[in-house]
Structures are given as C-alpha cells and as structure tokens.
Amino acid sequence: MVFDATLLGISSSTPLKNRNHTSLAVKYDGEVILFDAGESVQQQLMKVKISYMAITKIFITHFHADHFLGLPGLLATMSLHKREEPLTIYGPNGVEKRVRTILEFFEIQTVYDLKFVELHNGIICDTKEYQIIARGVKHLLPNFAFVFKEKDSVGKFLKEKALALGIPEGPLYSQLKDGKAILWKGRKISPDEVMDYKTIKRGKSLAYVVDCFDANYEDFLENVDVLFHESAFMKKDLLQAKKTRHSVTINVAEIAKNAKVKKLVLINFSPRYDDLNTLLHEVQSIYPDAELGQELKTYNLHIKQ
Ligand SMILES: [Zn+2]
Fold it and tell me: Which residues are placed with Cβ below 5 angstroms of ligand 1, an ion?
C-alpha cells in the first residue's frame, strides 16, 4: 500500500519554460487525489506515469486560472478514453456551475458521472482510511488549504499466531486484520486471537497550501508530516505579496516552525525569481528543515505492506 505525493508543478501565475503551474497528485492505496489542475497537468501526469483514469477526486483551491486551467482538458481526455467511474470535484461555492459552464463552452460532454462538493471549513472527505480537511484562507478570492490525514491504525497482526493456528496466508488474514471473525476447519476464530490491539500506528499526514496571505491557520497544520506550502515572494517584495495576497518566505517559515511540521516543501513561486535558492535561504534562516519543491519529484509518506 502506497501513500505518496508527486509535485506536478511549482509555478504561480504563469508557467515558465522549466516550471509548470502548481498541482499535487497524492496516491493513496491505488487511488489518485489531485490538488489543483494547472495548465499542463495532463503531460505532467504522463511523465510520472500516473494514470489520470485513477484520479477519483479533484480538489480546486480557488478559481484563479493558474489553479484550474488544466481541468477542462483533463475531463475531456477522461471522456475520450471512455472513463466509466464517477469523478468528484471539490471547490469553493459555485464549483458545479463554474465547471459545467466551462465544459459547455468547450463543447465537452463527459461520458462518466461528475459529482460536485462545495468546500467548507472542516472534514470534507471521510473514508475508512483517511480524511481530507479544508480550511478557508485569505486570498483575493475564496480559497482553501487542505490537510490529507491518514487515520491511525489500531492493532498489529500477529502472523506467527495465525500460522500456529494453521491458518494459511491469504484473504483470511485480511478479514482478521479488518476485525472480522473467520471460520477455519469448523472453528470460529476471532480477530483478537491473532491481533495485538495495544499497538497503535500513527497515520501520516500532508498539507497543501497555496495563494494566501494570513497566518491564522497554524493550528490547522499542527504536526503535519509534509507541508507543501507556497513561498511566492521574498521579503523585499512584501508589498506585492500583500497586494496580491500571496505568502512571503519568512511568514511561511514562521508558520512551519510554530505548527511544528516535520518537513516543509516550498512551492508556488512567483515566476519573477530565476534563482529559487535565494527564497530558500530566507526560509531556512528561520526554519532550517525546508527544501525547494521539485517538479515530478515524489515524496513518500510511507510504504505499508
Ligand atoms: Zn490565486
């Protein structure tokens, strides 16, 4: 079982020849969840061999073009390839009307079901294995930050006990791990015979934050394992950052420090900077454990057997 995140782009506002619009593809146990869909999202997905057909959910932070220009093309390609599974698109208020209007404008008809969910503060998506939590942040338009949180797993499967009971490896193990009793050679075997429920494994988490100028969400990001956070401007360009409501290096560093995140990956850089190391140095002066996000790089949260 894989839980990782691949950066498809790191550029805010306009792409550059070597930087694409910011988007993040999270893989979780065969599912792909996309955060934003920049202009070149399809080709970026192909380069990292992530199938767009595996995408189940798309989260759009806000409706500035650089965060969802790639969406209509992606939806059209899924249709041309005869996708059958439904797809859910999450976005700020009005997401359904906006996306349907764009599709109509481009004469795109989807052959699969599109579902829409309007974002609000709190848990947006709750599955057996993970939660996705949203939080409104200040920008020129309604905009949301996200935390993807894997649930803690309670219990450790004791394989030696199962083998001692004569149970062969295979699907019966999965049932026991899921807390279901099984019948083996006429005897009912309950999960607590082969599970250690005193063991708790903490779930991993990541966060995705772009296009915001406010620091009132540190609690939201507390103890996140990997924080992908925009670092659009250097401190010398603070006025521009305020005007366009984007993050400044030193504020991002303070947020990461106060939230005690384990790792900070900087993304969504203004195209005005050629050398991103200058931004990195400003962040590292406050929060040393920071790195520049790299396009097409995959960040492993964990690989579980
Ligand atoms: Zn924006």
Answer: 64, 211
